[in-house]
Design a protein that fits this description.
The complex is a heterodimer of chains A (about 325) and B (about 290). With about 325 residues, chain A is an all-alpha fold. Helices cover about 70% and strands about 0% of the residues of chain A. Chain B has 2 domains: about 50 residues, no CATH class; about 210 residues, MetI-like (MetI-like fold, Orthogonal Bundle), CATH 1.10.3720. The longest helix of chain B is centred in the first third of the chain and has 32 residues. The chains are: A mainly alpha (about 325), B mainly alpha (about 290).
Chain lengths: ~325, ~290
């Protein structure tokens, strides 16, 4: 059973119980209602208090402006209009999209190659899988710190290794043209293991007979990959893409630790070129105290996520093969 | 995406590859694996160096001697022990809380017919689709009203309720056969007894997956602690690392010691329970 699949039809009570049930319907229905509400109420009360109500509030906040004493004044759509006043929001949107598209496609391409390589009756499969998965379980805050050190332009090991190869290093995290791509690399590094594990699980369900038959027809490795592996793996690829896009669109921790380094207004020279929508939301809401503006940013992000996810479900017919 | 994890025998094994292909494959995979753990190895080495050594050009690989003092310094300069304690308390309570609230509600949504069930379940799905940041400011305002800002309660209480966990366990319960509970019903068990005695034991794999991922999310959480906690003694490891970075911007040996200290417990748990982790991801698709 998996989370991605809205469960099978709600099974009614088995036919045999019907007459008995009907006779006692009143009592059983009352008992069912009692236990139903009793068992969902601990979770539901929390959900309403800490999630549903805040959701509605943020929606409302996005149409308000906050005074110095936390009083919200209705200003209609002005926060949404203000998004397009300066370049900041569009830049952040662009950064987020560039980060998302690059990190998701590169992560999946690498993970796919690795998964195919791993799925060939190879010794040490579980060791490799464990090693590739370690970055996935690592705290993003620690990942940010570690990579800031690796990327250090004067003493970092990356520039040193490049130097050994005769390539001149760069100021990865302070060069406006590079910083975003440097973050993409870290995003890819920390996401490969997740895609790999799911791809491997998908590959292992493909019957080997298909490959045997293709071999009889004289198909080479590439033909097998594009004609058998990829189509049969497409539901998994689709699922990983949906989840990864939603996650990548919310990138924040890496930017916070690698670029802005600290609470308060960032002084980094590349913050404009790297800040994501969630970072902008954080800055507006908790640094600049423009809560209404921050709410508008995060609602826009929500709309983008819904649109992209919806589009993927519409487009899946074109390339995803179920069975 | 239901991927029946095929039984151990799997499908028929493919014939072994020729030796040179195998070697090339191993080479590629090993290079990849090195790229995965290299950053950890390098940071660990740095964490044992002096500041002077860390800033040497060209860099030395091994530290001249293992400077455990860096680690000691992390604990004396920052309330790192408190970070651990807070993270462990918050994570433990959240795991237990999420398992209780999610399994109760998941069972009810999967198996009990009560008025309004579908509407209420739709609320869970709505929360599931919304980016987490939407809740952030109002949650903060609620914490302020309750006087919980800067307390562990703020870190714990909103995290006791998990739309995803409820959804996951509902799916899990729906996949279990109904025969056992029908027998129990005839024996006069009420819903709670069925849930407690029959369904929970059967749902163990789902509960374990949910526990593992709640553990990971809670341990690694960053934005919420950053927002709701401002005094160091109340911080968890993630926010503590940001604080450490603010204090010692370029003292990389110290920063690396802090990074390793905060992440090693998770890696250790992962290596021990790696089968459950990997199966949890593969069968549920949850992202760590």
């Amino acid at each position: 059973m998996s989370a991605s699949e809205p469960g099978a039809a709600r099974a009614g009570p088995p036919g045999g119980n019907r007459p008995k049930r009907r006779r006692k319907w009143g009592r059983i229905a009352r008992a069912d209602a009692f236990w139903g509400y009793a068992m969902i109420s601990p979770g539901l009360i929390g959900l309403l208090t800490f999630y549903i109500w805040p959701m509605l509030q943020t929606f409302y906040f996005s149409f308000t402006e906050w005074g110095p004493f936390g009083d919200a004044r209705w200003t209609g759509l002005s926060n949404y209009r203000a998004l397009f006043d300066g370049p900041e929001f569009l830049l952040a949107l662009g950064n987020t999209l560039v980060y998302t598209v690059l990190s998701v496609t590169i992560t999946e391409a690498i993970a796919l190659v690795l998964a195919v390589l791993l799925n060939q009756n190879l010794r040490g499969l579980s060791v490799y899988r464990t090693l590739y998965f370690i970055p996935v379980v690592t705290m993003p805050a620690a990942i940010g710190l570690v990579w800031r050190w690796l990327y250090n332009s004067d003493y970092g090991v990356i520039n040193y290794l490049l130097g050994l190869l005769g390539i001149e290093g760069a100021r990865w995290l302070s060069d406006p043209g590079l910083a975003l791509y440097a973050i993409v690399v870290v995003g890819v590094w920390s996401g490969i293991g997740y895609a790999l594990v799911l791809f491997l699980a998908g590959l292992q369900t493909i019957p080997t007979d298909y490959y045997d038959a293709a071999a009889v027809d004289g198909a080479g490795a590439l033909v097998k990959f594009f004609r058998i592996t990829l189509p049969l793996l497409s539901p998994t690829v689709f699922f990983v893409t949906v989840i990864s896009l939603i996650n990548s669109l919310q990138v924040f921790d890496l930017i916070f630790l690698m670029i802005s380094s600290g609470r308060g207004a960032s002084t980094s020279p590349v913050i404009e070129q790297t800040q994501s929508l969630v970072y902008l939301f954080y800055k507006d809401t908790f640094v600049l105290n423009e809560q209404g503006q921050g709410a508008a940013v995060v609602l826009t992000l929500f709309i983008i996520i819904v649109l992209i996810t919806f589009a993927q479900f519409r487009l899946q017919r074109r390339w995803v093969h179920y069975d | 995406m239901t991927r029946a994890t095929s039984p151990n025998g799997r499908t028929r094994r493919r014939p072994r590859l020729p030796a040179w292909t195998r070697l090339a494959t191993h080479l590629i995979l090993a290079v990849g694996a090195l790229a995965m753990i290299g950053p950890f190895v390098w940071s660990t080495l740095t964490s044992f160096k002096t500041l002077g050594e860390a800033f040497q050009v060209p860099p030395t690989i091994l530290p001249e001697q293992l400077r455990w003092e860096n680690y000691a310094q992390v604990f004396t300069q920052l309330p790192f022990l408190a970070f651990y304690e807070n993270t462990i308390i918050v994570t433990a309570v959240k795991v237990v809380g999420v398992l209780i609230t999610s399994s109760l509600a998941g069972y009810a949504f999967a198996r009990i017919d009560f008025p309004g069930r579908n509407v209420l379940f739709a609320l869970y799905l709505a929360v599931l689709m919304v980016p987490y940041q939407i809740f952030l400011l109002p949650q903060f305002l609620i914490m302020a009203k309750l006087g919980w800002v800067n307390t562990l309660l703020a870190l714990i209480v909103p995290g006791l309720f998990d739309a995803f966990g409820t959804f996951l366990l509902r799916q899990f319960f729906m996949g279990l056969p109904r025969e056992l509970e029908d027998a129990a019903k005839i024996d006069g068990c009420n819903h709670f007894q069925i849930y407690w005695r029959i369904m929970l034991p059967l749902a163990k794999p789902g509960l374990i997956a949910l526990a593992i991922f709640t553990f990971l999310w809670s341990w690694n959480d960053f934005l919420w602690p950053l927002v709701v906690i401002n005094s160091p003694e109340k911080m968890t490891l993630g926010a503590g690392l940001a604080f450490l970075q603010g204090q010692y911007l370029t003292d990389f040996p110290l920063l690396m010691a802090g990074a390793m200290l905060s992440t090693l417990p998770v890696i250790a748990v992962f290596v021990v329970l790696q089968r459950q982790f990997v199966e949890g991801v593969a069968s549920t698709g949850i992202k760590g």
